C-alpha cells in the first residue's frame, strides 16, 4: 500500500515525506517474503507514514489538499473505502473515501492547536470489513510569523543609585512571542531602546538595562522614562515588534554637604528665661533626602559654650539653641557662638568631595528683666538651745535685689511652714528670733521658709528654706525604761539577783548617758534588799537574806534614786515592786498569791469566784422581785387610752367656716370620766379630794361652744390638783383648696419677730384686722 503526501510549503519536506512512503519492495509494492521470513517475522502493514504538514492561516477558494492515502490492495476499482477518524476528522479534515485525498476545510492557527492526531483505515466498501489494521498519523500545523512580541509584566519600574558608574545594572525586561521558537526565526527576539538614550542602554539578547552615562545627579533629575522594543525575526526587516516602558528613578546618596541659609544669626533673650527654654533656631539645608539629609549641630567656639546648648529637631532638622545656665544681664550682656552642622551618615565614596559640614555665627543679646531678690545662700542652717530665751536672736538671712535699681527688701516667714508661730523675723534686717519656748525632746528640727519681697514690686518674691536645729540641754531626769515588777522566790538564797533594771533619759548628751543609782537615805540600811551598779549602765537588785514568806509579807516596795551626769545633774525616784512568790526547786515561779493560805480546804480561786458570782446573782433577783411588788401595789388611777389629752384625732374634711356649728361634734372633746364632774389625774396623786360641780350632760348636736369652753376653763382654774401646764390640741389641717394655708403657730417660725403679717390684709377685712393686731403686739414687744 502506498501513501502520497503533498505539502505546499517546501520542496524539501515533500521529498522527505515521499521518502517515508516508498514501497517496501519493488514492482508490485508488496514485500516478497520467503517462507522462513513469514515464520520468523510478523506481517507488516501495506502502508507506512509518519506525519503530514499544513500551513497555518492559509486561506483560499478551495480546501487545502494535505495529502493522499493509497493502499496496494486497491486494484483501481471502487471496492476500497478510506475512513478517517481522530482530532478534527470530518470537521477540520475530510478524506475522499474513494481516492484517499485529505483536505483541510478550515483556516488553522498553530498557536491555538499545533498538531492533530488521526487514524486511517481501508475497508471493503460492500462489507465494511477492514482490509488492513488501522494506522495512526499526525498532521502538524506549519508556523508562520503571525504574532508580535509582548511584555507581559510591563510597564516596569526600577531604581538605581545616583552617581553610579557606566554599566551599573538597572533591571531586566522580558518579552514573549507566541510563534514557534523551533521553526524559523518567528520567535527569535532582539531588544533595543527607542527612548531613554543616552542615559541607559540594553543588551539586545538578554534585555538587561544598564546605565550609559556616569554621575547622573538625582538633585538635577530624579526620574527617567525609557521605552524598550522587542522585535522578532532576529530584528530583521519584516519582523513584528512590541514595546514597553520602564520608569527608572535615581535613589539618593549622600553627595551633598549641609549648608546654612545665612552665615550670621541674631537672637535676644530675657535674663530671667527658664533653663531649657529655646531661644532660637538655625537651619542647615541639605539637598539630599532621608537619612542622607540628617545633620547634627554643635557649638564649637564662643564665650557661651557652657551657657548655651544646641540640639537637633528630629522632624524639621533645625538646630534649637537652649539655655543651660542662668543668665545675668548685670554680669554679661551678650554672647557670640560658632555653630557647626555636620552630616550624620557620610558615604565614603564621596568623602573626597569635601567636608560634609558647615558653620555659622550666632550672636545672643541678653535683655534686662526685673529679677526677684537673691539670697546670700540657697539654704540656711541655724542652731539654738532648747532653753533659749524668748525673743533671742537665732540667726539671720540676707538677700539683695540683683537689678540696677536695687530695690529694698522686706523679709517674712511663710506661716504655712510655721503653723505654731514659734519664730519671728525682722522685716528689715532678716534676723530670726524665738517666739515660743522650744523642746528638743518634742521636736528636734524646725523647717521654715523665709520670703523676701521687693518693696517697689511686690510681685518679685524669692523663698529660701531655713533648717533650725534645737540643741539639747539637760532638762529631763532619767527614769526606769519600763514599769518593772520583780518576783522573789520564798526559797531564794542570800545575794541572789532578783531583777536587773535599766533607765532611759530623754536628753541626748554628747558623751552618752551615764546613770547613778542609789537608795533613799532612810533606806540605805534596808534589811531585805541591796543594789549593785553594772558596767552596762544597768542596776541589779539583790536579796540580803532568805526565808521570805508570802504569808508574812507578799509585796515589797523599793524606792530607787536615778541620777544622770549632766550639768546640772537631774534625778528622779522610781519605785520597784517586789512580789514574793512560790517557786519550784529550780527557781521557776509557780504562784504569787496567797490562795494556799486563804483556802486551806483546797478550793481554787476559780471556784471561789464562781460562788461569789452566784451570790451576787441571787441578790439581783431579790431586788428585782421587791421592786416589781412595789409597783404592783400602786393603784392605777386612769387608763392611758382613756386620757383625752393624749388622744389626737385628725379630721381630714374641711369646715364650713366660723358660722358652721354642724360640721364637728363638740361632745367628742369631753372626757368620758368627766361626765360626773370628777376629773382624776394619773400623773399627780391628789392630796385632797376635790368635788367639782355637776357637769353638763353631753349633747350630740346644737351645743353652745362658748358656754362649753367657759365651763371647762372654770373647772381647770379651780382644780388644786391640776399641774401648771395646759393640754394642747393641734388642728393643723386647713382644708382642701384653702389659699390661706395652715395658721398653726407650731409650724411658724421659731421667733414671732420673723413673721410678716402684711399678707393678711390681702385676704379681706377680717384678716386685715388680725394682721394689725399681731403687728401691734410685735411692736409692743420691741418697745
Textual characterization of the structure:
Helices cover 10% and strands 31% of the residues. Strands 34, 37, 40, 41 and 42 form a five-stranded mixed sheet that branches. A four-stranded antiparallel sheet has the order 1-3-6-5, with no helix packed on it. The chain has a four-stranded mixed sheet with strand order 2-8-7-4, with no helix packed on it. The chain contains six helices and 42 strands. The protein is elongated and about 170 Å long. By secondary structure, the protein is mainly beta.
Strand elements, count = 42
Give unreliable regions as ranges: 1-48, 596-601, 637-642, 679-693, 746-752
- The count of helical stretches stands at 6
Radius of gyration: 67 Å
Strand content: 25-35%
Give the fraction of residues assigned to helices: 10-25%
The residue-averaged pLDDT reads 78
Largest sheet: 5 strands, mixed
Topology:
Elements: E1 3-4, H1 11-20, H2 35-40, E2 51-55, E3 64-69, E4 80-86, E5 93-95, E6 101-104, E7 115-124, E8 135-142, E9 156-161, E10 169-172, E11 190-195, E12 200-202, E13 208-211, E14 223-231, E15 241-251, E16 259-260, E17 264-270, E18 278-285, E19 295-302, E20 308-312, E21 318-323, E22 334-343, E23 357-367, E24 374-375, E25 380-385, E26 393-396, E27 399-400, E28 409-413, E29 423-425, E30 431-434, E31 445-454, E32 461-471, E33 479-480, E34 485-489, E35 497-501, E36 503-504, E37 516-519, E38 529-533, E39 539-543, E40 555-563, E41 571-583, E42 589-591, H3 595-598, H4 605-633, H5 705-717, H6 765-782
Parallel strand pairs: 2-8, 9-15, 17-23, 25-32, 34-41
Antiparallel strand pairs: 1-3, 3-6, 4-7, 5-6, 7-8, 10-13, 11-14, 12-13, 14-15, 16-18, 18-21, 19-22, 20-21, 22-23, 24-27, 26-30, 28-31, 29-30, 31-32, 33-36, 35-39, 37-40, 38-39, 40-41, 41-42
Organism: Bubo bubo
Keywords: Calcium, Cell adhesion, Cell membrane, Cleavage on pair of basic residues, Glycoprotein, Membrane, Metal-binding, Repeat, Signal, Transmembrane, Transmembrane helix
Biased composition (Low complexity): 739-754
